[in-house]
């Protein structure tokens, strides 16, 4: 399944995900996140989008840790960091692709 056609945990059918450089992970099951992030970043790179914002929320940090562990494994990721306050603070991660 392509990133642009992932199912959300609240949906029973594939939902198109716009490849626009921002991905809100709130609607996805934790077990979907690693594959979704990887596929989404590939799609962004194909479109020439090299700065991506992943919104994982603040909570207890479990989803953020899953996202960061996934980003460490992706060769196309040059760097990543938590967003500043205006970009979501520690509820979002900014990714720079190579």
Main traits of this protein?
globular; 2 helices; alpha+beta; 4 strands
Plain-language structure description:
The chain has 98 residues and is of the alpha+beta class. It has one domain (3-12, 28-97): 2-Layer Sandwich (Ribosomal Protein S8, Chain: A, domain 1), CATH 3.30.1370.110. Helix content is 29%, strand content 20%. The chain has a 4-stranded mixed beta sheet with strand order 1-2-4-3, with helices on one face. Helix 1 (30-46) crosses helix 2. The longest helix is centred in the middle third of the chain and has 17 residues, at 30-46. The model is unreliable at 7-11 (pLDDT under 50).
Write the layout of secondary structure elements.
Elements: E1 22-24, H1 30-46, E2 51-55, H2 62-72, E3 77-82, E4 92-97
Parallel strand pairs: 1-2
Antiparallel strand pairs: 2-4, 3-4
Helix pairs in contact: 1-2
Largest sheet: 4 strands, mixed
Count the helices. How many? Answer: 2
List segments where confidence is low: pLDDT < 50 over at least 5 consecutive residues: 7-11
Quickly give the CATH architecture.
Answer: 2-Layer Sandwich
Taken as a percent bin, the fraction of beta residues is 15-25%
CATH class: Alpha Beta
């Amino acid at each position: 399944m392509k990133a642009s056609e992932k199912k959300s945990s609240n949906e029973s059918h594939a939902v198109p995900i716009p490849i626009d450089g921002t991905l809100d992970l709130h609607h996805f099951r934790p077990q979907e996140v690693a594959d979704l992030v990887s596929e989404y970043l590939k799609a962004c790179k194909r479109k020439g989008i090299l700065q991506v914002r992943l919104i994982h929320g603040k909570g207890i940090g479990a989803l953020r840790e899953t996202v960061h562990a996934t980003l460490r494994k992706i060769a196309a990721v040059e760097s990543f960091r938590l967003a500043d306050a205006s970009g979501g603070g520690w509820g979002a991660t900014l990714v720079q692709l190579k």
